[in-house]
Amino acid sequence: MQRREAFYSSTEEAFIVIRITSPATSANLGSGFDVFALALSSPADEMSFREIEDGVRIVAEGYPIPASAEENIAGYVAIRILSAKGIDSGVEISIKKRIRPKSGLGSSAASAAGAAYGLNELFELDMDREELIRFSMLGESRFSGAEHADNVSACLCGGFTCVSYSPLKAVSLPLPEFLEYAVVLPEVEVETRAARSALPRSVALSSHVRNLGYAAFLIAGILTGDPDAIRTGMRDEIATPVRSRYVPHFEELRSAAVKAGALGLAISGSGPACIALCDSSSGGGRYIAGIMKDFYRDRGIECVTYSGKPGDGCKLL
Ligand code: HSE
Asked: Which domains does the chain have, with CATH numbers?
């Protein structure tokens, strides 16, 4: 497959354009705060990269994002990579922002990881997965105030990922055939920074132990294809109790989704989107998405839904 497409300028000089998609991701999945995330098959941003004489130039369309490179997450990651790798030239990054910012669907991670992935391809930097994650995290930490690697790992690797921070590593799990997701995004905005500052600074050992058990069950359920274990594994006693206030009618929504057959419902990242994991043979993703859409519409809250199988990570178009 042709991966590096050459274009010609008006002066007949050839230049390379790298075009990629960078997917939405849903972090935490209940028990895995800052550790678990799932890549979604939609929505996704489209980004293209081309070398320019110097500096970082951002061209954006879709949901509004800053045009100044320093203030733009992709721009900021690009600046850091150019400087760390000693690259003399610059880059123009065109972004079709399809993932709504402040949605809990990894919009900033898609920009950060997309930039790292795109520059790696454009300048043939040969960065490995951990280095890509490290550069992507710089963008996340600058704009959300915390160095979390969950969204960027799923965005780069695809599927269901787990991360360890010390040492920094990410692993992508094989998924059961039946696994689907349904996401509902109500028309409210949540700043990751604010949602993180609401979290407790410390947790009781008993809560930690219960959450660790849920996390172990979620991984076991995914690896062995056991829907019951996934059901147990989406519980959470640490972040969800304090963050559910940012999600309209969260407990009722969860009851409605589970009653309709969802394996569980969790706040997606810092919200307000919520994600249900589903079994395609009973209450699949599309059906549960419809239930959640009706739930919010009945309460006068506009929303959008997404559903499908887990998606790939960043890839070349
Ligand atoms: N794990 C992060 C959080 C994800 O929950 O704050 C942010 O999207």
From this structure: 5-173 (3.30.230.10), 179-308 (3.30.70.890)
